[in-house]
Amino acid sequence: MPLDPERERLADLERRSLLAEQARQQAHHLRTPLSVIKLISETLQLELFDDRAYHERLQRLLGAASTLSNGLSDAVRSTRFGDGPQKRLDALSVAADVVRLYGGRVVAPADTRSAALGVEIERDSFEAAVIHCLRLLGVGTDCGHPWGHRPVLEYREGDGKVILRLSVEGRPNPEIPSERADLKLMTLAAERAARDAGGTLTLTDESATFLLPLVAGSG
Amino acid sequence: MPLDPERERLADLERRSLLAEQARQQAHHLRTPLSVIKLISETLQLELFDDRAYHERLQRLLGAASTLSNGLSDAVRSTRFGDGPQKRLDALSVAADVVRLYGGRVVAPADTRSAALGVEIERDSFEAAVIHCLRLLGVGTDCGHPWGHRPVLEYREGDGKVILRLSVEGRPNPEIPSERADLKLMTLAAERAARDAGGTLTLTDESATFLLPLVAGSG
User: Fold this and answer.
1) Contacts of residue B33 in chain A, CB cutoff 8 Å?
2) What pLDDT sits at residue A219?
3) Angle of the B52-78 helix axis to the B5-47 helix axis, nearest 10
4) Which residues of A73-94 are buried (b: 16+ CB within 10 A; e: fewer)?
5) Average of pLDDT values for B120-129?
6) What residue of A is the nearest CA neighbor of B43?
7) How far is CA B144 from the centre of its chain?
């Protein structure tokens, strides 16, 4: 079976999205203790200003805290992903392409006007988010089950929003090892993509539902 | 094109290997500044022992340093990958399976005795390492070039070692964006897998060469 360039492109987005999310989470969780260290060291340094020996040691301590802080920021910067400009995208057609590429089908109401599904979203992170959701539903990660279950994308719109619902047919009980760090990062990265577009993502065992605001003038 | 379960399994190993490597690198780089912070705070705490106000603040500072330290260790622990037991594997056949799965071919000398290629290595991390090397040679990552170049695995053995050399045919000038963080992590993870098996990995623009020691009695 030859490599599919489009699938490889998406796998690449997927990897980069996870690494970026891991770096962001790490930086986020370590920011609070790091500012405690900086704050205490700085006030001690002020109070012990006259004592040169203390001053120098606190200076070294602050230097080490800066190194830590820079290390965390560098990790975020070097894995930067999906922070390009948000553009108006046909969210349905982007999601549909990803779902079809993974062997899925799209359920469309008869009166679809594709132009009505314009959403302001960053493309790479949205594509990665759709794949993350498919993984979370078992596509390529459901080690305990036979292959062949099929992703389904349903959508509807209304009230200035579009709803894209992903699920998987033919698999009664997913066995996703949800404690795995990579799957947690998938959840976080997919939720972030929805949030960055002003929307939400709701994940259950059976489905992943994006609720995204339509851009003004397209409703 | 249906999903290939084996390729999806390898893509999963690949993702987990990268996340584990990122967590390890992060912990490694932040360990030194973190011990500076701990050491200085501890000595200050001893010296300022009589002053209760200082003591308490230094205690909070040390608490924050512990939180940081635990955060880094947790990230390493939760992404743990490829730290299962090393087992005796037929390294050639494992690498050959991966290369063939990515459309490649294997060049074998006529007098191959497969039993002679026993290497003590952890299977998941070795499989991930082989894919990382293919990516670094452009398979699925070479955005600037037409598809269709083909991986090649060559090997020879001698002197108690096996040499597995990966390259790609039909691609004169790879255009790999080597500054990308994910590709750096691929390099580090693949080198680590080789090192953990007591061997080395040599990466150039054109090839990736594993030099792995054969286990005693199989040479």
Assistant:
1) 64-65, 67-68, 71
2) 42
3) 170
4) eebbebbebbeeebeebbbbeb
5) 95
6) A57
7) 25
Residues A140 and A111 sit within 8 Å (Cβ to Cβ): no
Query: Could you tell me how many CB contacts below 8 A there are between chain A and chain B?
Result: 143
Q: Which of A32, A35, A41, A43 to mutate to test the interface with B (most CBs of B within 10 A)?
A: A41
Q: What is the per-residue pLDDT across B6-29, written as a single tens digit (0 to 9) for each?
A: 899 999 999 999 999 999 999 999
Residues of B in contact with A33 (CB under 8 A): 64-65, 67-68, 71
On average, the pLDDT of chain B sits at 88
Note whether B130 and B99 are within 8 A (CB): yes
Q: Give the residue from chain B lying closest to A25, CA to CA.
A: B75
pLDDT (tens digit per residue) in B169-199: 876 556 677 778 999 999 999 999 999 999 9
* Domain covering B87-213, topology: Heat Shock Protein 90 (3.30.565)
Q: CB under 8 Å to B187, separation ≥6 — which residues?
A: B132, B136, B203
Distance from CA of A28 to the nearest CA of B (A): 11
Which chain A residues are closer than 8 Å to B8 by Cβ?
140-141
Please answer yes or no on whether B68 and A141 come within 8 Å at the CB atom.
Answer: no
Return the pLDDT at A199. Answer: 96
What CA–CA distance (Å, rounded) separates B96 from B185? 23
Of A60, A47, A63, which is closest to residue B40 (Cα–Cα)?
A60
Which amino acid is it at B10? L
| Position A215, amino acid | V
Nearest to A192 by CA among A8, A22, A10: A22
C-alpha to C-alpha distances, B81 to A134, B16, B20, B131, B197, nearest whole angstrom: 22, 7, 6, 15, 15
d(CA B48, nearest CA chain A) in Å: 10
pLDDT reported for residue A99 = 95
Residues 6 or more apart whose CB falls under 8 angstroms from that of A170 comprise: A148, A149, A150
Q: Are A36 and B60 within 8 A, CB to CB?
A: yes
Backbone φ and ψ for B56, nearest 5 degrees, come out as -65, -40
The continuous run of DSSP H or E covering A72 comes out as helix A52-78
CA angle B108–B109–B113, rounded 5-degree value: 85
Instruction: Give me the interface pTM, i.e. the ipTM.
Output: 0.91
Residue B35's pLDDT is 95
Q: Which residue numbers in chain A have pLDDT < 70?
A: 1, 110-117, 142-148, 171-175, 216-219
